[in-house]
Prior knowledge:
Elements: H1 17-28, E1 32-35, E2 41-43, E3 48-51, H2 63-77, H3 97-111, H4 126-131, H5 144-160, H6 168-187
Parallel strand pairs: 1-3
Antiparallel strand pairs: 2-3
Helix pairs in contact: 1-2, 1-6, 2-3, 2-5, 3-5
Amino acid sequence: MPKPPYQRPIRSRYLDGLELIWLSTGRRLGLTLRRDPSIFSRTDGSGHLWLGPRTDLDPDDTLCQMLLHELCHWITNGIETFHEQDWGFPLMDYDDPREFSSLRLQAWLADQHGLRGMLGPTGKYREYFDRIGSDPLAPLDDSPEEAHIVAVAREAIVRSQAAPFQPALGQALTATATLRDLLLPFDVDHLADDDDEGLPSLWTR
């Protein structure tokens, strides 16, 4: 009697290391992440966070960077905004100053681990983020709006160092920096199929 064809048992699945770190961090902070092609990013106040699919991202966008940005929104707006849609940001045409405070918090958090080059925001707010100097709390000009943005960011930084955000957020940033340091020596010899785009690896940022 012939032997049945061999079917290899599947006992595990591969998870990207960086995504594993940040998906776990989201869960530790009470967030469940989902992908939705009709959404760029959205929260509903129940602990669900929707992000667009990977195919909609720019080449230098990662789940890590997008989740960090959403966490910075939450931290900046206050712990209680976990239960508000989109962390309490109004869906209006103007740019809410708290968005820029979130960017300053994002820069400050990334700087604690030498990760600012990797963890910048996507979209139009990258322009402001890239203008932030070595001191994330230094205003760009003398305007009252910049002074307000910096003051809100300063409060958010203090908030980010306490529960519920710590220790999960600090552990995620430390693990990301460790992974970056482990991968850098290999990145030198990496040759991707799309290297003709002339873009260096995000891990080198």
